[in-house]
Amino acid sequence: MRLFDTHAHYDSGAFNADRLEVLASMPERGVELILNPGCDLESSRTAVALAERFPFVYAAVGVHPSDCGDWEDSWLEELRALAAHRRVRAIGEIGLDYYWKDNPPRDFQQQVFHRQMELARELGLPVIIHDREAHQDCLSIVREHPQVTGVYHCYSGSLEDAKVLVRLGWMISFTGVVTYKNARRALEVIDWLPMDRIMIETDSPYLTPEPFRGERNDSGKVYRVAQTIADIKGLDVEDVARITLENGKRFFQIETGKEEDR
Ligand code: NI
């Protein structure tokens, strides 16, 4: 199988002991491509460094809503400079997170989200959206930036919102959460979604799929997400792997073997 894990955090401290070994093992585990998004300036820099080191790793740069408390608009300069790197293919992950009580205030998260949507438009890059318990506000900000498209990562919204996003030209991405018992709503969304709008991801080191829950997650487990989608769609897992790989390559403008051409 050849898989594209479109969202994994190898800059995370959870990989401090064996980061390079784990990444180096991915091609032989069937993982053809990995996109490592940033969550703050430092993790964005690390994402770019990993993408420089491994030919199958690409990066996104951005500031996560949970990590935006110290945001200053001068950070845009640094993100712009990082985004100029040839292996950076998106702005992310950005968005809103109303779940954690001690996250930055909602209106501040929204401001930072707007700034980064504007940056994406200016640079002509897609965005990677994190939306946790903020569906309405997130979608209304997305609608305020009609020239920007992107992907909703670890989709947790409704079927109605998914239909809106597809109409707006967006992609929707799923993690190992779809293998959990309480995943009913995501499965309903997958059942409806056109195959050309689906991407798969691990969100490593988090959200480890069944039957590996409790272990640290890594891209080698992304086939479990492909398998779950295949079961719902009545497709072969190989086909889901191939289609989601193609979708990810198209979305992030990756031409294998020609990654210098951006
Ligand atoms: Ni993430």
Low-confidence stretches: none
Strand content: 15-25%
Estimate nothing, just give the exact number of structural domains: 1
CATH class: Alpha Beta
> How would the global form be characterised?
globular
> What is bound: which ligands?
nickel (II) ion
Per DSSP E runs of 2 or more residues, the count of β-strands stands at: 8
What is the makeup of the main sheet? Answer: 8 strands, parallel
N- to C-terminal distance: 27 Å
Instruction: Give the H and E element order.
Output: EHEHEHEHEHEHEHEHH
Overview features:
262 residues; alpha/beta; TIM Barrel; 8-stranded parallel beta sheet; 8 strands; globular; binds nickel (II) ion
Can you tell me about this structure?
There is one protein chain. The protein is α/β, with parallel strands linked by helices and 262 residues long. The protein has one domain: Metal-dependent hydrolases (TIM Barrel, Alpha-Beta Barrel), CATH 3.20.20.140. Helices cover 38% and strands 15% of the residues. It contains nine helices and eight strands. It has helices at 19-24, 41-53, 75-83, 106-123, 135-143, 159-167, 184-192, 223-233, 237-251, and strands at 3-5, 31-36, 57-61, 88-97, 127-132, 150-152, 171-174, 198-200. It has an eight-stranded parallel sheet. Strand 5 (127-132), helix 5 (135-143) and strand 6 form a beta-alpha-beta unit. Bound molecules: nickel (II) ion. Nickel (II) ion is lined by residues 7, 9, 93, 203.
